[in-house]
Amino acid sequence: MHNLRSLFSIFSSDLAIDLGTANTLVYARGKGIVVNEPSIVAINKNTGEVEAVGKEAKEMLGRTPGNIVAIKPMKDGVIADFKVTEKMLNYFIQKAHNRKMLVHPRIVIGVPSEITQVEKRAVMDSAYRAKASEVHLVEQAMVAAIGAGLPITEPSGNMVVDIGGGTTDIAVISLSGIVYSRSVRMAGNQMDEAVMNYLKRKYNLLIGERTPPELSADISDRGIVLTGGGALLKNLDKRIREETGLPVSIADDPLCSVVLGTGKMLSDFKLLRKISIE
User: Fold this and answer.
1) Within a 10 A sphere around the Cβ of 154, how many other Cβ atoms?
2) Which of 54, 82, 133, 141 fits a disulfide with 171 by CB distance 3.0 to 4.6 angstroms?
3) What domains does the chain contain, in order, with CATH numbers?
4) Banded model confidence at residue 195, pLDDT cuts 50, 70, 90
5) Beta strands in the chain (DSSP E)
């Protein structure tokens, strides 16, 4: 029995990760969301050692002696600090597995749609160095749509706007593929105005020459689904509705859409193969 269980635990170690600018979420297959913590690492400048990660590190912000610095290794949805991201990933992966050292999970990670080749490599290398056996990357907007329960495999247009801490990903999805996507590195206070203007400008453009008319019609009927922490901004949905004239709805659990959608990939390798970008 014990052997069977250890065999099983080897296979159920797969993880889905939403490596966000503000927060990192980890979903373990069969367990659900096991980590949801700020993407922050506290490092001792004298020794170079990691003092704390996540919630603990956030609590140290502004309260640390001069030799301890709190670093946010993700900027605009991508890795700004290689080594620190790796340490952070390592910590969250261990935490997801209750610190079991010998785990080599398959990992699926959501990344912004306009991530460069170099940035992709950085994410993958970090995950491999954190002892992953396989790493797959998926686009955040795509998995956000899946996590929000949109019927992405159907031949109809679904539009998702995933407003994160560092990037806003906008995508039109049909038949398990992204027909149109943009990622804007824009968050926080600038965001409200900018996203509005952006949507207005791009949406007109989208209806213009870029998007097949059938998909535009679908989107006029079904509207836009908002995901990500930014979707929680009071009245943002109302504002986008006024600006675009489209129906706007908010995902049930906008903060978790990306990680839940990524988590679905762990049990649907066929779909993962279709949508994985690496």
Assistant:
1) 13
2) 141
3) 2-141+258-275 (3.30.420.40), 150-252 (3.30.420.40)
4) low
5) 15-19, 23-28, 32-38, 41-44, 50-53, 68-71, 74-75, 78-79, 106-111, 134-139, 158-163, 168-174, 177-184, 224-227, 248-250
147 closest CA partner among 229, 261, 253, 16 = 261
Per-residue pLDDT reduced to its tens digit, 161-178: 998 888 888 889 888 888
User: How far is the C-alpha of 131 from the C-alpha of 34, rounded, in Å?
Assistant: 18
- Strands (DSSP E) contained in 39-192 are 41-44, 50-53, 68-71, 74-75, 78-79, 106-111, 134-139, 158-163, 168-174, 177-184
- Cβ 17 vs Cβ 110: under 8 Å: yes
Whether the pLDDT of residue 189 is over 50: the answer is no
Buried b or exposed e, range 225-247, using 16+ CB within 10 angstroms: bbbbbbbeeeebbebbbeebebe
Rounded to two decimals, what is the model's pTM? Answer: 0.82
The set of residues, in sequence order, having a beta carbon less than 8 Å from that of 14 and lying 6+ positions away, is: 28, 29, 105, 106, 107, 108, 266
- To the nearest whole percent, how much of the chain has pLDDT over 90? 27
Q: How many CA atoms lie within 13 A of 187 on its CB side?
A: 19
Q: What is the mean pLDDT of the chain?
A: 83
User: What is the spatial distance between Cα 225 and Cα 144, in angstroms, rounded to a whole number?
Assistant: 10
DSSP assigned state of 229 = G
d(CA 84, CA 72): 8
Rounded distance between C-alpha atoms, residue 36 and residue 54, angstroms: 9
